[in-house]
Amino acid sequence: MRFLITAGGTREYIDPVRFISNASSGKMGYALAASAVKCGHDVTLISANVTLPVPENVSVIKAQTAEEMFNAVKAEFAECDCLIMAAAVSDYTPTETSEQKIKKSDSELIIKLKPTADILKWAGKHKGKGQKVIGFALEDKDIESRAEKKLIEKNLDMIIANAPSTIASDSAEVTIKTPDTDWLTFASENKSTLAEKVIALAEKLF
């Protein structure tokens, strides 16, 4: 199969040197890409601001911002069998980006933000026959109920729910659900090991 996987945290620029972002390291997305290749699949990885080495035999597309990632997903989506959105895409981006570095002053700086495109929702709406879409849900409370709501509202085939403690960590504890199954819990373990289990579950969707 062909997997399309996103990884890392997007940057939403305020000016040429300053941006809004998050602490995502891309470790989970890169582990998923490596695992999928190991299982014999073709993998395209859309990578946002990650410093990790690229897994062997993985095609990489760079995307800094949420808009760039959305454009990359739209360009590649029709050719994939399974999209796994492991990237931490910024929910908001500045309404305006200064072309020059904003000089420091004694005055308050007010930055207006607007919502970014919901890539996962777009994919769930536009998936073709046989295509599968897998999303991640990072929640700090009511993890399973909020993740299940996301699973249904965005027409996903699988949701992987975790807590903020997994960000940039080498290990993670997650719960996984499909529309037709109960929650499956994986205790804290290395992300590479977890990635192998996620890819195995993704294969079962087919």
The unreliable regions are none
Going across the major beta sheet, what is the strand order? 5-4-1-6-9-10-11-12
Secondary-structure class: alpha/beta
**Helical percentage:** 25-40%
Distance between the termini: 10 Å
Question: What is the molecular shape?
Answer: globular
Assign the CATH superfamily.
CoaB-like
- H and E string: EEEHEEHEEEHEHEEEH
**Which band does the percent of strand residues land in?**
25-35%
Question: What number of structural domains do the residues give?
Answer: 1
Q: What is the CATH topology?
A: Rossmann fold
> How is the main sheet built?
8 strands, mixed
Q: Could you tell me the number of beta strands?
A: 12
What is Rg? 17 Å
Q: What is the CATH class?
A: Alpha Beta
Count of runs of 4 or more consecutive helical residues: 5
- What integer is the average pLDDT? 96
What's the CATH architecture name? 3-Layer(aba) Sandwich
Note down, in words, how this protein is organized.
The structure is a single chain. With 206 residues, the chain is of the alpha/beta class. It has one domain: CoaB-like (Rossmann fold, 3-Layer(aba) Sandwich), CATH 3.40.50. It is built from five helices and twelve strands. The strands form three sheets. The protein has an eight-stranded mixed sheet, sandwiched between helices. Strands 2-3 form a two-stranded antiparallel sheet. Helix 1 crosses helix 5. It is globular and about 55 Å long. The relative contact order is 0.18. The model has no long low-confidence stretch (mean pLDDT 96).
